[in-house]
Write a structure and sequence with these properties.
492 residues, Rossmann fold, seven-stranded mixed β-sheet, 17 helices, 16 strands, elongated
């Protein structure tokens, strides 16, 4: 029980959802604890050490040029419209009301002065009502609409919530849909349903340009005995959504983030003939800087400046001169270069020896492999022992080469899902899969979502809605009977 209570306590470094009415914002709690909600600056020191789902009242701080608020814990939030609507008369209709811009007696400077002076939101809205010529002549519905509009601007309460998949997906989609490839929450749920995740399975995910949203969603349903092989094309994986979910160390240990090219290098080391199709995989960015490892082991960790990095590259070139000779015009004098190499080796060895002396009591003599290489080897071993239980491809690139390269590592009778913003690449991939014999039940679908406003006698769809949430190509992996028959006939 105590551990469950500790999980719900806000700590420095946690991600939280700040909710102000219908508006939500994802924020990482840091030492400074300051967040901007619109033009309002809010200090969050009060939420550290307090449980989530706590409501706070924004108390204005007097002085300063911009609105600054401190938080005070309270039991519940109060509706501004309900407080001001008590004992207030209203008109029968709005026929005699004209919007000439002169109904409000207060100027803009005076209203801004109320905010900077530290006046509460309820007091400001009360002043606006008292100095309005037409408010009391409006109908009850018009008055309620006006108060809700002002309440949205001057609302004084926020609630701290724990991140969930729905909230994180909605926030990312609302902030910038292109950063997550216009992946709506309903399409994300279709992906999870189609791939059929179970807690102890091993799943492959290729994701590029989606901020780790699909990885966070799949990891949410995988248990401690399962694995998620998260493949990416760049040098660094995108895991913003994974970090936002505040997963513990046990959950994060199930995630193996590997570069797709590095993974295939590990897989093809023992069986090079399996790459007979010459499939082109996404190339890494900054491939020239790949594998900057000095000849003295893991000593490149101490290289911090650009000059040291260039020295490491030169040392690496010297080691591989037998297989990749350098142009004679660009080479230095052989004697000078040998002296320089010897000096660099001595410097690197001295630094490494000093580092070993510092950690001789706590570390083993052998240097540890980089984490990315360890995860690549572990992912390759998992796929060599048993094939994956499902495959998901969410790619900014054309998914044809990626899917055909990964399908041989998916077990038979297991599902695969491909997401794309546009329909045409999936239709081409659909025709390609129909010509092969290793998939079954292929279909291209599009999910459609429209939210509705539910009110008393006023239920109707929302005026604004998303134009599209992308397309899905799904199917089942089966054994390639054509290749099996050809191989058996050739053996006979």
């Amino acid at each position: 029980m105590a551990s469950e209570m500790e999980k719900n306590i806000v700590k420095v470094g946690d991600y939280v959802i700040i909710q102000r009415q219908d508006y939500t914002k994802l924020h990482k709690v840091g030492p400074k604890c300051v967040v901007m909600l619109g033009r309002d600056e809010i200090h969050l020191e009060s939420i550290i050490g307090r449980p989530v789902w706590t409501t706070y009242k924004m108390e204005p701080k007097k002085g300063g040029g911009k609105p600054v608020f401190m938080l005070r814990e309270c039991d519940m939030s109060e509706s501004l419209a309900e407080q001001l609507k008590k004992d207030m008369s209203s008109g029968s209709d709005n026929r005699n009301i004209f919007d000439d811009g002169r109904s409000q007696l207060l100027s803009t400077e005076e209203i801004i002065g109320f905010r900077t002076s530290g006046m509460s939101g309820q007091a400001i809205v009360g002043q606006l009502i008292e100095n309005s010529k037409t408010f009391r002549d409006k109908t009850e519905y018009s008055q309620e609409k006006y108060l809700k509009k002002k309440e949205k601007k001057y609302f004084e309460y926020i609630t701290i919530r724990w991140p969930t998949l729905r909230l994180v997906s909605q926030i990312m989609f609302r902030t910038d849909p292109l950063k997550i490839l216009s992946l709506r929450m309903d399409t994300l749920s279709q992906i999870l349903t189609t791939v059929g995740i179970h807690s102890h399975g091993t799943y492959m995910l290729y994701e590029s340009g989606c901020q780790g949203l699909v990885a966070a969603a799949m990891l949410n349903y995988i248990g401690s005995n399962g694995h998620l092989i998260h493949m990416y094309p760049e040098n660094v994986p995108q895991k913003q959504a994974v970090f936002a979910m505040n997963y513990d160390s046990d959950k994060m240990s199930c995630l193996l983030s590997v570069n797709i090219n590095a993974l295939f290098e590990k897989l093809l080391q023992e069986n090079p003939a399996s790459n007979g199709n010459n499939i082109e995989l996404p190339k890494e960015e900054n491939a020239d800087n790949k594998g900057l490892i000095s000849e003295s082991g893991n000593c490149d960790k101490v290289v911090k400046s650009e000059e040291d990095a260039s020295d490491v590259i030169r040392r690496k070139e010297d080691v591989i001169t037998e297989t990749d000779p350098i142009n004679d015009k660009s080479m230095w004098d052989s004697s000078k270069q040998e002296d320089k190499v010897m000096e660099e080796k001595e410097v690197v060895s001295d630094v490494c020896n000093e580092k070993k002396r510092k950690h001789s009591d706590t570390e083993e003599s052998t240097l540890k492999k980089p984490r990315m290489e360890e995860e690549s080897e572990k992912a390759a071993e998992l796929l060599k022992l048993s094939k994956a239980d499902g495959l998901v491809v969410v790619a900014r690139e054309n998914p044809a080469n990626i899917l055909t390269a990964l399908l041989p590592y998916v077990a038979a009778s297991r599902p695969f899902v491909v997401y794309c913003q546009f329909r045409e690449p999936l239709l081409e991939l659909y025709r390609l899969l129909k010509c092969r014999h290793n998939t079954l039940g292929n279909r291209v679908t599009e999910s459609w979502l429209r939210s509705h406003q539910i009110l008393a006698s006023r239920t109707h769809p929302d005026i604004s809605m998303s134009g599209g949430g992308g397309y899905l190509l799904s199917g089942i992996v089966v054994e390639d009977t054509a290749n099996t028959e050809e191989s058996s006939s050739s053996q006979q």
